[in-house]
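Follow-up to my post from last week.
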Amino acid sequence: MTHFPFEIAAVDGAARTGRIQTPRGDIRTPAFMPVGTAATVKALYPEQVSEAGADIILGNTYHLMLRPGAERVHRLGGLHRFMRWSGPILTDSGGFQVWSLSKLRQMSEEGVTFKSHIDGSAHSLTPERSIEIQADLLGADISMQLDECTAFPSPREEAERSMEMSLRWAKRSKAAFGERETQNLFGIVQGSTFEDLRRRSAEGLMEIGFDGYAIGGLAVGEGFEAMCEVLDFTTPVLPLDRPRYLMGVGKPVDLVESVARGVDMFDCVMPTRSGRHGQAWSDYGPVNLKNARFAEDDTPLNAAIACPASRDYSRAYIHHLVRAGEYLGSMLLSWHNIAYYEDLMARMRTAIAEGEFEAFRRGFLERWHSNEKDRAE
Amino acid sequence: MTHFPFEIAAVDGAARTGRIQTPRGDIRTPAFMPVGTAATVKALYPEQVSEAGADIILGNTYHLMLRPGAERVHRLGGLHRFMRWSGPILTDSGGFQVWSLSKLRQMSEEGVTFKSHIDGSAHSLTPERSIEIQADLLGADISMQLDECTAFPSPREEAERSMEMSLRWAKRSKAAFGERETQNLFGIVQGSTFEDLRRRSAEGLMEIGFDGYAIGGLAVGEGFEAMCEVLDFTTPVLPLDRPRYLMGVGKPVDLVESVARGVDMFDCVMPTRSGRHGQAWSDYGPVNLKNARFAEDDTPLNAAIACPASRDYSRAYIHHLVRAGEYLGSMLLSWHNIAYYEDLMARMRTAIAEGEFEAFRRGFLERWHSNEKDRAE
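User reply:
Got it. Predicted complex:
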């Protein structure tokens, strides 16, 4: 297997910054990947995603296999061409959405059968089929092994059984993926909140050997403290020279605290989902633009971000658009939120490169917590 | 009153092409004005509207006075600044939407009182208040007199009563507008489908004297033939040297046939509304992108139009987006439709300038009618 080169340019505490070099372009780390669930980062044009600073986006295997269908995307030239995104794409394995969205799941050692949440049609997903969809049909630059997302909370025995099955699926995923020159495969560490299980999972994956290591099974209700604790004992076990990807996380504060613990990659639907619900993210937390106090606020969302949505439109105008249910309100807020997330990553990369990450983190946490009473409104 | 200069560069039959020169930029005629009902051309960024070829947009007084409120827009610097549109804006008077959207209307010689369709709040609109909202508070470049939209069909006596009241309101609108250096006011010809009433209305307006003349009360169910007939006997009565604006029209074929009858300006919600409902316009009529035949159609909507939505995205991708209910589907189709409408106007302007309008019109009608069986599907 050919790892994408991962050059770590600077390390500051556990935090690191660098570049993953892929044939479709470099990924500056720590990286935030906007989520393009159904072959579109919701309410953004692909050029906006790229100009906002995203080097890589995520596509959802579960959604794409159901609609428009993985074979169809393949016949249309693959996911990059289909959705007009020329940079790298990471696809998830489909496992998480089967677990959270589909109906009538049946799990077995072989894989999972389920009914589509769209039309009730029957489908199945095995480690081998997931790799076929991701790497062969969609043409993902980075594929993920199929895993089982362990429910939280789970008894230890259940977390162990589930983690061990994910490990066996990891082996089958790697075998199905084989050796590829221009595509990579990541394994996923499971084990819920149990330190020894996380360690066993990480070691099992490293024995198999992957191009990168994801931390799964978080952001499922365990809370901020538990997430930090899992990272505290999980990232040190992972190889220093390979990318670490924390799946499905999170709020800005989660990103900062995870980067502090050595995470390199993130994805989350939060910026676009919040945007469609009238919220703008900032270092001070989320701001609800529907709030009457913005009705005549002539200032932009954030003049320091070089994105038209952040800089050129007044809060009063966006307030009006959101109240009126206009498309442009969701479009501007989703765009701003992606730009804000990417700007936050850029600020963290700079801070790490300059050996100032701890100061950045302290400043960020001060801003984040300064406004908590306000946000609770 | 200072008319905006209207230079007619070429005449071909009754069709004409030229430029209306306003302090905020020239309007190339025949012109199509995208409708920015609630201070946004739905699902488009203002830059896209302008780059698609629109020189002027329309704002709806009724919607803006209810939300965010005309005084609020004024405090925020006027409609241009509020919505980031630096070109000319024409506002309607609010009369049509009061008639079509509001509840519990009470019409009198003085004006109309009504309840908001948004929150039931009580409002009133008089010729004087409409001018205040349009010209003073929103800051429209072109304001429209308040009129009563006569229902179709109407008995002759009712059409005459209504037209005569609109004429008295025209006089009051003109008096309220006064003399302005940088803003214009248009009168509206009413009279339903009755030739003598339309003539009487036009002559009455010309006696008062306006900067331009709109033809109202069409596109309200009278049908294509009746619309053409009304234009046949109405445009010849209007002054040659002033812009003629056909309100609320229409399909591409309506625009071509109206330009052939001497109309200079149009507005219609059709391109954006159709776009939100999965339809793309073309010289062959509307095309429903939801249709299964587009599922693997790798061609763009119209490679001849210099708009990314028309040229760079495949029908298969847009089909997928529409089926999946994604924002980007509505965004791309609305953008394409505005670009198509503006491209159609540009092609008509060129044909008139080259003395080839009749040939253009014949070719267009052949394309339009060639596909009628298909469209009926």
